[in-house]
Amino acid sequence: MMKSSHQGRCTALNLRERRKARRAVGGGVIADCNTEDRDGIMAACFRYIVNDVNAAIEFYTRHLGFKVEMHPAPPFAEISRGDMHIYLTQPSEGGGGAAMPSGERQKPGGWNRIHLIVDELDGTIAKLKSAGCRFRNEVIQGVGGKQILLEDPSGNLIELFQPNTAEYRAPGSGSEARRH
Q: Does residue 71 fall inside a structural domain?
């Protein structure tokens, strides 16, 4: 079983408010980074630039337990796992995939990544390799556990991490500091 930890914060409106807002604006992307949910906890939101939104949806839902929140247009989808949301965006003429004022086009890849905690890294790797998934490196042992970098179909990274001990606490978990 994988658990998510987050390395950035953005709050999405709760589901009822989001559906109501989507109807009001014809299905567009609605997010309010200044609103907390009923429990005062903020969702972690990330944008990954991808080559093919449909291939990315298939990868994240099939292999990593994400679910589709919305897919209103071919170059955009929102997926989630727990309180982590990823905006999958293809480079395009407008919106989150638009070129920079300099003309530079956005592209997938790089070294930024989400961090998913797994209970049994070796078994997870074997399962993903047998499904044809690609890794950027081999397993490395760090101070807090062992990890490997999984690539999505566009080359974006997902760090799979198995803590050394059951007492490992994901960054930001269980701390009152995350609510302030």
A: yes
